[in-house]
Amino acid sequence: MRGEKEEQSVAVQYVQYVPMQTYQEDEIDLKDLIKTILKRKYFILIFTLVITFLAATYAFLQTAIYEINANLQVGYISNSNSNSNSNSNSKIYLIEPSAMKEYIKGNFDNSKNENKGYPQVDADIIKQTNDLMNIKIRAFSNNEALAYLNKILDSINKEEDKKISFYKEGIKSQIKILETQIIEMDQQVNTLQNQLKTTKDPLIFQTLLSNIKDYKNKTLEYKLKITELNSHLSPLRIVKTDTIGKVLTYKNPTKPNKRLIITIAFITGIFLSIFLIFFMDFVKSFKEE
């Protein structure tokens, strides 16, 4: 019985087996890899330099593309009434902003033109605005891009001049009609005043006076209307499309990004050369076996 109790009190201990050989093999493999890389270090260096040189040659032979960035205020006619107490400042756009965007893209962007290619133009309405537009122009130089921007503005302004001319003709036509009506009413007033001199009937006399007063009030109303219409012809009310703020130009070209191309080529050359030396060693060992 005593022997059985001693056997029951003995605790079972498990010993984990650690294969030391695996760690040794991994350590040997890592050392072999480092030795292989160091052994072929000149190959890695030369291969990387060749790849980098080819990439640099490609980057420097590419035609440089420059970009300018400008913001435009879309042209409009202010339709606010200076005699009104309201603070509204409605605008009549000479060319609707969305239509202007399509006009610029359709007539001046050469990105889809296989024969030209450049200048290229991007135009978009600035977010949270109604009549401010951002335009980017890419060309072979900043001066060429700036000249192209002026060409775009000149073309837009010519289209706007047609709208402005039509608008002014409409205003002048209204003024002419009012002036004609004022002349006719002045003639009516003169006729009524002559009748006043000859009439002896008090009732007719009062009627004539009332009519004269109405004509004069109407004449004054038309004259005020003419003054208001003339104010709509003021250059201060008419704003043609133009740049706002400074046109941004950049000293360095946007394309090609030489630094990025050379950096990527250098890193690629290192990894590719290392892959090649291991691949060549694998082929060599495979043939020996």
Automatic annotation (TrEMBL):
Signal peptide as annotated in the record: none
Domain Polysaccharide chain length determinant N-terminal: 26-87
Subcellular location(s) per record: Cell membrane
UniProt superkingdom: Bacteria
Keyword Cell membrane: yes
Name of the protein: Lipopolysaccharide biosynthesis protein
Transmembrane regions: 42-61, 260-283
Pfam family, one: Wzz
Membrane disposition: Multi-pass membrane protein
Organism lineage string: Bacteria, Pseudomonadati, Deferribacterota, Deferribacteres, Deferribacterales
PANTHER family per UniProt: CAPSULAR EXOPOLYSACCHARIDE FAMILY (PTHR32309:SF31), TYROSINE-PROTEIN KINASE (PTHR32309)
InterPro entries recorded: Bact_polysacc_biosynth/exp (IPR050445), LPS_length_determ_N (IPR003856)
Sorted UniProt keywords: Cell membrane, Coiled coil, Membrane, Transmembrane, Transmembrane helix
Protein's UniProt keywords contain Chaperone: no
Primary location: membrane
A GO cellular component entry from the record: plasma membrane
Coiled coil location: 168-195
